[in-house]
């Protein structure tokens, strides 16, 4: 396994390609998000609205099916109602949805940043792993910036998401490069 400390050349070669591909995709999406932050923000908000509707209708179907066989699915019916209502609100009032997402995204960046810093200590023997630490620190900084600027506009989500994706993509590419260097030494 890659993160257990036992590294084989095959594991490193497989991981290197994956790190390059995922990192490259993250870079492209990050630059697109920076180029069109308003579009990125409202695209994310709209997708979340549709996902909430899908979850709500799935819960409603599950509650209906349970009711037909005699169960009492009130919790599932309640969650269906909440999910559908939230999805409709996101789609009808996109600004409110974007503001809600900005709060959630700030929480995500904080958790993601802390997780990356913890992960750095697991992979610090790999060249390029310092980028994981830097990406984690940046995630925490972005979380606090976003929390302070919740009402500054929809573009904040697209910009912060773009920056985070660019640094995360670079960190994976650099980690892949470190895997390449490490596999040559073995």
Q: Can you give keywords for this protein?
A:
globular, transmembrane helix, membrane, single chain, 186 residues, DUF308_memb, transmembrane, mainly alpha, 85% helix
Commentary on this structure:
The protein has a domain at 8-42 and 94-181. The chain has helices spanning 9-35, 37-68, 74-92, 94-123, 130-148, 155-185. It is mainly alpha-helical and 186 residues long. Helix content is 85%, strand content 0%. The radius of gyration is 21 Å and the shape is globular. The mean pLDDT is 85.
Task: Draw up the topology in text.
Layout: H1 9-35, H2 37-68, H3 74-92, H4 94-123, H5 130-148, H6 155-185
Pfam family, one: DUF308
GO cellular component, one term: plasma membrane
InterPro entries: Acid_resist_chaperone_HdeD, DUF308_memb
Mean pLDDT, nearest integer? 85
Counted by DSSP, the helix tally is 6
Percent of residues in helices comes to: over 70%
Report low-confidence residues grouped into runs of 5 or more. none
From the helix content, strand content and strand pairing, which structural class follows? Answer: mainly alpha
Order of helices and strands: HHHHHH
Please give the number of β-strands: 0
Report how far the terminal alpha carbons are from each other.
15 Å
| Beta strand % | under 5%
